[in-house]
Amino acid sequence: MSDPIIRIEGLKKSYAGGVEALKGVDLDIEKGEILALLGPNGAGKTTLISIVCGIVTPTSGKILVDGHDNQGDFRAARSMIGLVPQELTTDAFESVWATVSFSRGLFGKPRDDRKIEDILRRLTLWDKRKAKMMELSGGMKRRVMIAKALSHEPEILFLDEPTAGVDVELRRDMWELVRKLRADGTTIILTTHYIEEAEEMADRVGVIRKGELVALGEKKALMAQMGQRTLKITLDDAIAEIPAGLAEWGLALEDDGHALCYRFDTHAEHTGIPGLMRRLDELHICYKDLATHQSSLEDIFVSLVHEERAA
């Protein structure tokens, strides 16, 4: 296997007062993949992106971007990266065309009107090319931020909450663009709270909690590794509480007493289900339906965040 396009080793970031934003993150990102980073606010996602992009200085650790050290060889490393930040920061009085063209020049790229036109057309911004930034909606401004990030033809694109505040149509267009960029070989790292998008779009998913990468893997592998299956038993008659004779299974009572839910590990040698069903018969608890549900990325994410709050 070829070397990763981004290698992050032992990355730490501490702020004044002893706050640890990152606690020794190790992460390899492969060329051409879409990696989604999930995590609650304050988990360290934006700090991680900001350090890789050279905006924030790490306390310790090493980052290689296609072999270039992002501290010692900053210019070469940064030229490979496009960043779409969470905050919309543009000159309100500049036109869309000028804003995107200026960003290309910042990276020392020669003027290329055809390239800028192509980017604007792909982002459905061509008709707005003469409009001033202050005249655009929030969703259109975010498109311009993506156009700016693509203006110097980077091989790596960071999208920090790219669809925040964007309507459904714009969001769908943006994800279509992401697919096209990946098809062209662009490596894409995104943070998002829209878990269904991460589940649909990403090749791999990482979960950041309290400055640590607590889960990382291909979507299916991650769900198989961390996900659980839930058996829902719909009862003939509602019960007020779970009988003592069912205590060992750790059941939950749901649907106003009409259902018992049993969570089990699909990889366990013994799931406990046959014993549970026998015990229900012994206790004369009748049921009319059985259904199972595989945990989604959202279930995994919620459980990890729950662990964080309980810690």
From TrEMBL:
* Cross-referenced InterPro entries: AAA+_ATPase (IPR003593), ABC_transporter-like_ATP-bd (IPR003439), ABC_transporter-like_CS (IPR017871), ABC_transporter_ATP-binding (IPR050763), P-loop_NTPase (IPR027417)
SUPFAM superfamilies from the UniProt entry = P-loop containing nucleoside triphosphate hydrolases
Q: Which GO terms describe its molecular function?
A: ATP binding; ATP hydrolysis activity
Start and end residues of each ABC transporter domain: 6-235
Which keywords are on file for this protein?
ATP-binding, Nucleotide-binding, Transport
Q: Enumerate the CDD domains for this protein.
A: ABC_DR_subfamily_A
Top-level taxonomic group: Bacteria
Q: PANTHER family attached here? A: ABC TRANSPORTER ATP-BINDING PROTEIN
Which protein is depicted? ABC transporter ATP-binding protein
Q: Which organism is it from?
A: Sphingomonas cremea
